[in-house]
Design a protein that fits this description.
single chain; alpha+beta; FAD/NAD(P)-binding domain; D-Amino Acid Oxidase, Chain A, domain 2; 2 domains; 6-stranded mixed sheet; 20 strands; binds flavin-adenine dinucleotide; FAD-dependent monooxygenase; FAD-dep_Monooxygenase_BioMet; FAD/NAD-bd_sf
């Protein structure tokens, strides 16, 4: 029996930032939404995230910006400190109004908790430990075979399953994953009293910085240049990151002892991917990192993922024909996402060449571009 009451149905693969945002945006417009997630419930890695102005603006579109600001740490200034110690503070545009901060730092699990609670509140269902193994595109519907042997027959299939997207392969799209010779580190530390905004420190060989994510916590990031993407034992990470910070002086040196004893350190390869072909096939589409994964340097992958969810729902609202709506969605998103991925790659290269000052104008131009409406 069809219990849908005429509502359109969507299956979203991946309960990350893009998937949960799309779930809320669609459920709010009356879609019946199911989200399947390969990982276990509550398994989000515990490192911090910067939510730039466009992220906050998109979260505001979902009514969630204030919750994120309350759970995180609002700020409006980035201070870039050169290798010679010269500090350049940059005031950031306040995209959600003069009375609210320009951006926020937040712990990833906190952002996921907020996005998930909103999706559930709006009626979306989520299932964990589940993925998709086969997709058959019919006339205006998709039949999905799931890894537990069950099937779903839906009007819309959204692949929000990250940079290594399975859905991308299943719909016949490819995006080579490129490694850029850098590893990024994140360590959770107590927030230093002076860290009321983002600080970046250029060093000889590597660059580092501090981002507050709550009144009591901050994360220290470090980009390690010219290394192979190997895996180090978890038990060695804090000590090794401490060693990499040894050449830094000033405030960067102050956080070093806290990093070396941090219980939460991660190290990830700097990778990018971009789908050059259309992001949809029939009534299936990929969004977020599955379609366009920038490197972390612009701290804007989450912004694109959240915007994708909103814009997708808007286009599906505007156009009854799902296939057409998905094509318009890609057209509307492609250039913005491509610019961001290309800029992040260029910054990674300049960092490797120790040309930090050359990177600043690129970063500023790209942020200005991102400040334009999605
Ligand atoms: C170290 C690092 C730091 C970063 N810092 C920032 C930052 O400060 N600010 C910022 O804006 N961006 C940052 N980014 C980028 C940002 O994390 C991503 O752009 C963003 O998470 C993309 O969201 P997503 O939902 O598309 O993908 P993901 O966050 O990767 O979520 C994908 C989800 O799909 C699930 N999944 C994967 N495969 C399957 C499958 N086959 N079936 C079902 N589920 C599946 C995964 O478990 C996951 O839950 C950073 C990235 C890295 C690596």
């Amino acid at each position: 029996m069809d219990n849908s009451g005429g509502a359109r149905s969507a299956l979203i693969v991946g309960a990350g930032i893009a998937g949960l945002t799309a779930a809320s945006a669609l459920a709010r417009r009356g879609w019946l939404v199911e989200v399947i997630e390969a990982g276990a419930e509550g398994a989000t890695a515990g490192w911090g995230l910067s939510l730039t102005g466009p992220s906050l603006r998109a979260l505001d579109g979902l009514g969630l910006a204030d919750q994120c600001l309350a759970a995180g740490y609002g700020m409006s200034v980035i201070t870039n400190v050169d290798a010679d110690g010269a500090a350049t503070p940059i005031g950031l545009p306040r995209l959600i109004g003069r009375d609210r901060p320009a951006m926020a730092g937040i712990a990833r699990p906190e952002l996921h908790r907020i996005l998930r609670a909103e999706a559930l509140r709006l009626g979306a269902r989520t299932r964990h430990g589940l993925s998709v193994s086969r997709l058959d595109q019919g006339d205006g519907r998709v039949r999905a075979e799931l890894t537990d042997g069950t099937t779903r027959d839906v009007e819309l299939l959204v692949g929000a399953d990250g940079i290594r997207s399975v859905v991308r392969d299943l719909i016949g799209r490819s995006a080579p994953i490129r490694y850029h010779g850098q590893m990024v580190w994140r360590a959770l530390v107590p927030r230093p009293a002076w860290a009321t905004g983002i600080h970046t420190f250029a060093g000889v060989g590597h660059q580092t910085g501090v981002v507050p994510i709550s009144p009591s916590q901050a994360y220290v990031f470090l980009t390690e240049n010219g290394v192979r993407p190997d895996v180090l034992p978890d038990a060695d990470l804090a000590a090794r990151m401490g060693e990499l910070l040894a050449p830094f002086t000033g405030r960067a040196a102050e956080v070093r002892p806290e990093v070396a004893r941090s219980g939460s350190v991660i190290r990830r390869p700097v990778q990018t991917a971009f789908v050059d072909a259309p992001w949809s096939a029939g009534t299936s589409v990929v969004i977020g990192d599955a379609a366009h994964a920038p490197s972390p340097q612009m701290a804007s992958g989450a912004a694109l993922a959240i915007e994708d969810g909103l814009v997708l729902a808007q286009e599906l609202d505007r156009c009854e024909d799902v296939r057409e709506a998905l094509e318009t969605f890609t057209e509307r998103r492609r250039e913005r996402c491509s610019v961001l991925v290309r800029t992040s790659v260029a910054i990674a290269r300049l960092e490797q060449e120790q040309r930090h000052r050359d990177a600043y104008p690129l970063i500023e131009t790209c942020h200005r571009r991102m400040a334009q409406p999605a």
